[in-house]
Amino acid sequence: MRDPGLPSLDQLRVFIAVIDHGGFAHAARALHRTQSVISYTIANLEDQLNVALLDRSKRKPTLTEAGKALLADARAVSAKVDDMRARARALGAGLEAEICLVVDIMFPMCRLVRLLEAFRREYPTVSLRLHTEALGSVTQMVLEGRCQLGISGTPVQMPPAIERQLAGHVLMMPVCAPGHPLAQIEGVVPTAALREHLQLVVTDRSPLTSGQDFGVLGHRDWRLGDLHSKHALLQGGLGWGSMPEAMIARDLASGRLVRLRVQDGDELQYPLFVIHRTDDHLGPAGSWLKQQFLDLDYSQPHEDD
């Protein structure tokens, strides 16, 4: 038995049309061809593949077992070619092939999901690479050109090569587990009491923030590389620390965590900046994404899952 030949894209699309439109005549009308041309194309495709795709013993042709299996492949090939053509058309118009975005871990994840859903609808041909980092690592990735766009909360002086715009703020609040000694203090918790207990702090390895501490009060602290680890340790009663309101709203409502009223104020506005390199011109997709972050209403209540 000879090996299958190489079917053309047109043959595959005629095959799909016969099935989707319910027969040769309907497919011919949909494709603006004669019925004889449709029949000839299917016969040639079957000859190319060495299998019968359609059972013609009945008035309406039906798929054979081989036809059922190969129809899925035909659809996949056709869809891939359509995607390729759409991407080529977009690239020809100046649209980016890919966007790399890095987001500060304090950014509310529920909002990020909704924003990226809108991005996918608006730019379906643009691939996205997403990173989440802490503190100076966001700026470092943009500075080194590894990401075109960043959402940074770094409270340090930005390098001259970085352009930034304030997008909004995330509300941070100090919390601990209900069984923690600090939770037993009624009223305002003195700063001296905070210093005596282990503080859980998110840190990063960026040289931009090397040797700098932000909001560290405790004489003893544990440095953690990600926010979810900090969240778990707080729930486990291992220490106290500040967390984004969105991430702990359900914990506060259920009593898994309690909010601390501290002497220096129990809320902190954590700034979020949209950043990119001054010498890196954002394309249509990058500019659209940047504007979405700037247009978000950060004052509205939100909650992460």
Automatic annotation (TrEMBL):
- A Pfam short name: HTH_1
Cite the entry's keywords alphabetically. DNA-binding, Transcription, Transcription regulation
Signal peptide residue numbers: none
Enumerate the GO terms in the molecular function aspect.
Answer: DNA-binding transcription factor activity; transcription cis-regulatory region binding
State the SUPFAM superfamilies in the record. Answer: Periplasmic binding protein-like II, Winged helix' DNA-binding domain
Q: Which domain of life is it from?
A: Bacteria
Q: Which residues form the HTH lysR-type domain?
A: 7-64
The answer, when asked if Disulfide bond is one of the entry's keywords, is: no
Q: PANTHER family, per this entry? A: HTH-TYPE TRANSCRIPTIONAL REGULATOR, LYSR FAMILY TRANSCRIPTIONAL REGULATOR
Name the protein family.
Belongs to the LysR transcriptional regulatory family.
Record's protein name: DNA-binding transcriptional LysR family regulator
